[in-house]
Amino acid sequence: MYDFLKGLRVVEGASFIAGPTCALYLAQMGAEVIRFDTIGGGPDFHRWPLAPGGASFYWEGLNKGKKSIAIDLGSSEGRELATAIICAPGDNAGFFVTNYPADGFLAYDRLKAKRADLICVRVMGWADGTPAVDYTINAAVGVPYMTGPTESTAAVNHVLPAWDLLTGAYAAFSLMTAERHRRATGMGFELRLPLSDVAAASLSHMGQVAEVLNTGADRPRYGNALYGAFGRDFLTADGARLMVVAISRRQWAGLVKALNLKEAVAQMEARLGVSFGDDESVRFRFRDHLFPLFETAFGMRRLAELAPVLDREHVTWSVYQTLREAVTTDDRLFGQNQIFETMQHPSGMTYPTAGPAGTIVGTPRKPVAHAPRLGEHTDEVLADILGLSAGEIGRLHDSGIVAGAS
User: Fold this and answer.
1) What 3-state class would DSSP assign to 345?
2) Cis-peptide, bond into residue 372, ω within 30° of zero
3) How far apart are CA 281 and CA 296, in angstroms?
4) Is the pLDDT of residue 406 over 90?
5) Residue 207 neighbours by CB distance under 10 Å
6) Does residue 3 carry a pLDDT above 90?
7) DSSP 346-357
8) For the whole model, what pTM was predicted?
9) Is 137 found in the same domain as 17?
10) Which of 209, 91, 225 is closest to 147 using CA atoms?
């Protein structure tokens, strides 16, 4: 945790990954994030994976360091409370992250009538308001037909919700951009950020839209081979599977040297009339010639022999491992990684917990904050943000408009 956004107050009304991830990043940089949920929890409150007691590791991970207020959002009074929290006064307040529909009770025009300079970042599925999640967007943009074994014709879904994660990061960037603009102009606005547009823009940025328009065909599957350069998985003599990549000239030269293949590669270059060192695309075009040579070279050596040589020659490589193996044995990723802190959570479970992924050099990290219990900060938010008295807060509890932590 860092304090660079200390004093900034952000209200979150969102479920699943993109919106909560945006607010998580802001909280980890010091912003006060107040998340409101319906009493009993929203649609992501019990999402898998689950702790033995039934608490969601998913919810616990995405809401670290936030404050939680539970409100009956089905009642008009509960909705008025949520709106009042979003639009509460303050120079460093009036920032809202949501994935609620654009035309509901949290429509920007309704909120703006209560706070003219409100900044709202609204995560959406499709730009026209049609609902979508990462996996349906991924299907729509064609990535599953570029993923998987070369001989397959079936769509292959990716388990990583990339568009959700990219959207969450872009939403945090957008909110801070809007904050800077408001400081300069005093103006607020709503920024709508559909997953579909993040996906389409990302594929465009990487040249893939231009590629299919130019070729008139979809990019075929290449299995585990790296598109456009040299890279693939290889098995060692003792059965370890390595991912090896050589894009730059230095990476290629180091790999060839590490495997003692300089002479064999030179002979192949002479036979084919090409130079693999000058252009990574040549390595890709002639991958069917190169791969058998490298398969044999890797297959003759054990991992313990290969690893120090690959590292000495600055080869870009990694061993394939399961997440369980990585968590329990890989100190570089988890065991000794400074971004993690082992702590107990509201679920009752103790495990390594990530703070900010970025490290600010020369600035000490503050302790990682765990997720709140649902409704843990209800009374605090009502008193501090809305200035309600103990009697007023008690009435809201008694009438079921709000709830505390159970």
Assistant:
1) coil
2) no
3) 22
4) no
5) 11
6) yes
7) TTS-EEEEE--S
8) 0.95
9) yes
10) 225
Residue type present at position 377: H
Residues 37 and 171 in one domain: yes
Q: Total structural domains in the chain?
A: 2
Give the number of C-alpha atoms closer than 13 A to the C-alpha of residue 356, restricted to the C-beta side: 22
Of residues 44, 72, 134, 164, which has the active-site annotation? 164
The one-letter amino acid at 248: S
- In this structure, which amino acid lies at residue 271? R
Query: Both tokens of residue 12?
Result: 């979150």
Kindly report the number of other CB atoms within 10 A of residue 121's CB atom.
28
Q: What residues make up the domain containing 186?
A: 9-203+339-403
> Is residue 380 located within the same domain as residue 292?
no
Alpha-carbon distance of 238 to 79, in angstroms, equals 62
Establish whether 164 is a catalytic residue: yes
Taking the C-alpha atoms of residue 111 and residue 88, their distance in angstroms, rounded to an integer, is 11
Are 54 and 105 found together in one domain? yes
Mean pLDDT of 353-367: 96
- Average pLDDT over every residue of 362-386: 97
Check if the beta carbon of residue 232 is closer than 8 Å to that of residue 224: yes
Residue 15, domain CATH: 3.40.50.10540
Q: Same domain, yes or no, for 68 and 158?
A: yes
**384-to-88, 228, 255, 294 alpha-carbon distances in Å:** 10, 57, 61, 65
Residue 382 lies in a domain: yes
The pLDDT-based confidence of 19 (bands split at 50, 70, 90) is very high
Give the tokens for residue 102.
């654009």
User: Do 358 and 298 share a structural domain?
Assistant: no
Model confidence over 41-76: pLDDT tens digits? 999 999 999 999 999 999 999 999 999 999 999 999
Q: Beta strand 67-71 with 402-403: parallel, antiparallel or unpaired?
A: antiparallel
Do residue 31 and residue 171 come from a single domain? yes
Mean pLDDT of the region 151-163: 94
Q: Does one domain contain both 50 and 187?
A: yes
User: Mean pLDDT, to the nearest integer, of 133-138?
Assistant: 97
